[in-house]
Design brief:
220 residues; mainly beta; Porin; eleven-stranded mixed beta barrel; 9% helix; 63% strand; disordered N terminus
């Protein structure tokens, strides 16, 4: 319990740092990303991983808004040395009420490369085909690593950075996502707590869009 309180203090401090960072007087949106992860087993083998996400906008504190519900299924196709390959099928529904709701379907392919070093550095290329009202492709370059792995005094913290490029024939957009997280056990269920800082409208010449996303990942 003491360790959990310490982790909450660490995340609280990081949140204050993000919030106090000067963003040229830009408004910062506050959102939450809550994901529930469950492996699906066949013949005692974990063949598919199911992920359910609820994404909520708390920018208007008096009226939080559920932005989307998302369900995905991932299958690891295999690995060779440090390389790995996986595929996903993702369904997202924006605005759950029938009025104004929109659907999106995404086939996803992910190529990973794991480095054999102390910080467990991993790199990934992710390719998404976004079927919605207006089709687009999205390419990701991501890396993550651990701070203080197996350290007797400090809790392990995972740092993840995602750079996204979304494009079609008529438009393109760039976004960066920086995430800091720690892991804990709550009533025997692994829980990852994180804070993510998103920057949108990169390289457009327009004012940047800033978002703070509070994340939880529950693994069952």
């Amino acid at each position: 319990m003491k360790l959990f309180v310490q982790k909450q203090k660490v995340l609280g401090s990081l949140f204050l740092i993000f919030f106090s960072y000067e963003v040229v007087a830009q408004e910062i949106d506050l959102l939450s990303f809550n994901r529930f992860i469950a492996p699906i087993t066949f013949a005692d083998e974990h063949l598919i991983v199911a992920r359910t996400v609820f994404f909520t906008d708390y920018t208007s504190s008096s009226k939080p808004e559920l932005v989307f519900f998302q369900q995905s299924f991932q299958r690891d196709l295999g690995s060779k040395g440090p390389f790995s390959l996986s595929v996903q099928l993702l369904y997202r529904r924006y605005n759950l009420l029938p009025a104004g709701s929109k659907n999106e379907y995404r086939p996803i392919q992910v190529i990973g490369y794991s480095h054999n070093n102390a910080i467990k550095l991993r790199q990934r290329l992710r390719f998404e085909q976004r079927f919605k009202s207006e089709y687009s492709n999205r390419w990701w370059y991501s890396f993550d690593f651990n701070l203080f792995p197996n350290h007797p005094r400090y809790t392990t913290r995972k740092i993840t950075n995602d750079f996204l490029f979304d494009f079609n024939e008529t438009k393109k957009s760039y976004e960066n996502r920086l995430n800091v997280s720690v892991a804990e056990q709550v009533v025997g269920i692994p829980l990852k707590l994180g804070i993510q800082y998103r920057t949108r409208k990169l390289f457009t010449g327009e004012p940047l869009k800033h978002l703070i996303v509070l994340r939880t990942d529950w693994v069952f």
